[in-house]
Each structure stands twice: as structure tokens, then as C-alpha cells.
Design brief:
- With 204 residues, this protein is an alpha/beta fold.
- 31% of the residues lie in helices and 21% in strands.
- The strands form 2 sheets. It has a 7-stranded mixed beta sheet, with helices on both faces. A two-stranded antiparallel sheet has the order 4-5.
- Helix 3 links the parallel strand 6 and strand 7.
- Helix 1 packs across helix 5 and helix 2 packs across helix 3.
- The protein is globular, with a radius of gyration of 15 Å.
- 41% of the residues are buried.
Length: 204
């Protein structure tokens, strides 16, 4: 194994399944999304990554500014680090298929940043409760990359239209986006997992 920039855990799965990269939310850790991913894709290999920003009760993938906006310089730097780590881990674990990212909240924003700045890295993404990591469209293209965005209609940690703004950005970049709004709050629910599982099966 090469030296790692990110704490993580890896669960090997079936060879024919699309492998997953799991990106937790704020105050979380690499163990948070494993039960969710086990329900969505029980046979898939799973690389669950810990963010590098230490918080009082856990970790995050990037810093925010005092007004709670994403810090654009920090997310660019940390996206580069994470993309390099994923590429190295794929070689270390002898994985040949590109991964699908599953991200929640802070991790979903980071997943979107990976799609937008390293478009060849991911085969797709499931983003629960994201918002756009960048204020403006980027030059990179993510042509035909499938993306599922799932918003909560009663999410008190997001403004109305946050997920739609990201969906439109990704569509302009060429991604194949499915955007759903569920009658739920910020947390991932059983309904979220059903939607994600059905979407992932449809990508085969």
C-alpha cells in the first residue's frame, strides 16, 4: 500500500458490480454511509473515505466561509487531494471499473466537485442533499455521466432550489442528470435508499 492522504475503510465486493466511493456528511466519519451503501448495492466493493477537515464531532471534506458558503479555494485544493487518493486507492485495491460516488450533504458537495473538476474519475454519482460547489459553470465537460440528485422538500439545511441549481449546472456540462425531490428532511431516509437503488440498477 502507498501512503494515504485520507483515512478510509475498504470492503471488497463482487467483481461484476460497479464499485462505490462513499463520502460522508459534516461531523461524520468513514463508517457513516456503509449501512446506506449496503442497502443500495450490497454486492458492490465500497471505499469509504474520511474527510480531512477535523470538526468538533467528526470530519468534513472542505471548509466553509463564515457566512456558510463553500470556500472555493479550499474545495479546489481538497478535491485535488481526494481525486489523487481515489486514483491511488483504485490501483492499490486492484479495481478496474471506475467508481460511482455516493455522497451525503458535505460529501455530496464534494462528489459534485469531483464530477466537475475531474470528469474522467467517476462513472456516476448519487448525491443526497447537495448544493453547487462552484458559483459559476466550469470549462470541464462531464458528457453523458449519469448523476442522481435527491433533495428533501423539508430540508432546513438547504435553500429551495439548491439541488436544482446543481442539476442545471451539471446538465449544461453534459451530464445525464436525474433530479428528485422527496417529501423528507435533511437525513437520508428509506425512500432515498429505494430511489438510489432503483437508479443504480437502471445504469447497468
Amino acid at each position: 500500500m502507498t501512503a494515504s492522504t485520507h483515512a478510509h475503510c475498504f470492503h471488497a465486493g463482487a467483481v461484476g458490480e460497479s464499485p462505490l466511493v462513499l463520502l460522508h456528511g459534516s461531523h461524520g466519519s468513514e463508517s457513516d454511509l456503509i449501512p446506506v451503501a449496503d442497502e443500495i448495492a450490497p454486492e458492490a466493493s465500497k471505499l469509504s473515505v474520511r474527510g480531512t477537515v477535523s470538526m468538533d464531532e467528526g470530519y468534513a471534506f472542505f471548509h466553509r466561509l463564515p457566512d456558510r458558503r463553500v470556500d472555493p479555494r479550499d474545495i479546489v485544493t481538497r478535491t485535488r487531494m481526494l481525486a489523487g487518493f481515489i486514483a491511488t486507492a483504485w490501483a492499490d485495491y486492484n479495481l478496474t471499473r471506475r467508481p460511482v460516488a455516493i455522497g451525503f450533504s458535505n460529501g455530496a458537495i464534494m462528489g459534485a466537485a469531483l464530477l466537475m473538476t475531474y470528469p474522467g474519475l467517476l462513472a456516476g454519482a448519487i448525491l443526497f442533499r447537495p448544493l453547487a460547489p462552484f458559483a459559476h459553470d466550469l470549462a470541464d465537460r462531464v458528457d453523458n455521466t449519469p448523476v442522481l440528485i435527491v433533495d428533501g422538500a423539508h430540508d432546513n439545511r438547504r435553500s429551495p432550489g439548491d439541488g436544482l441549481q446543481l442539476a442545471e449546472q451539471l446538465r449544461r456540462a453534459g451530464a445525464r442528470v436525474t433530479h428528485q425531490v422527496l417529501s423528507v428532511g435533511h437525513a437520508i431516509t428509506a425512500e432515498d435508499k429505494i430511489v438510489a437503488r432503483e437508479w443504480l440498477l437502471a445504469q447497468r
